[in-house]
Amino acid sequence: MHAIMLKAKLHRAQVTHAVLDYEGSCAIDGDWLDLAGIREYEQIQIYNVDNGERFTTYAIRGEEGSRIISVNGAAAHKAGVGHRLIICAYAHYSEAELASFKPHVLYMGEDGGLSHTSNAIPVQVA
């Protein structure tokens, strides 16, 4: 049996660029891709915290250390500069892999940089 699980998440990443006249995709700082374990051209889901838009695209590598989050092509209609996004990648895992499974979560700070990382999402309290 297999399960589709959250592989990686950039929580509240700030959009730095929205480029309508581009082939498409979402450019993400290469350092952040590496930390999250997201591969270039991997499918990602994007959830816009500011306007509620949800869309699918793929990741492309941005310049390392640039803090770039560039939403490109048609997706630029769904997220603008300054918007906060949740960017997620999902993967299939076998039952054996699930025994030690932990997602890679990057929490972004108010300044647009990386605040901290985790391998778990806090339990939601009532």
Automatic annotation (TrEMBL):
It is an enzyme of class 4 (lyase). The modification Pyruvic acid (Ser) is found at S25. Catalyzes the pyruvoyl-dependent decarboxylation of aspartate to produce beta-alanine. Substrate binds at T57, G73, A74, A75. It comes from Stutzerimonas tarimensis. Pathway: Cofactor biosynthesis; (R)-pantothenate biosynthesis; beta-alanine from L-aspartate: step 1/1. Its main location: cytoplasm. One of its GO terms (molecular function) is aspartate 1-decarboxylase activity. Is synthesized initially as an inactive proenzyme, which is activated by self-cleavage at a specific serine bond to produce a beta-subunit with a hydroxyl group at its C-terminus and an alpha-subunit with a pyruvoyl group at its N-terminus. It catalyses: L-aspartate + H(+) = beta-alanine + CO2. Binds 1 pyruvoyl group covalently per subunit. InterPro entries: Asp_de-COase-like_dom_sf, Asp_decarbox. It is found in: Cytoplasm. This is Aspartate 1-decarboxylase. Belongs to the PanD family. Its EC number is 4.1.1.11. Pfam families: Asp_decarbox. Its cofactor is pyruvate. Heterooctamer of four alpha and four beta subunits. The gene is panD. The active site is at S25, Y58.
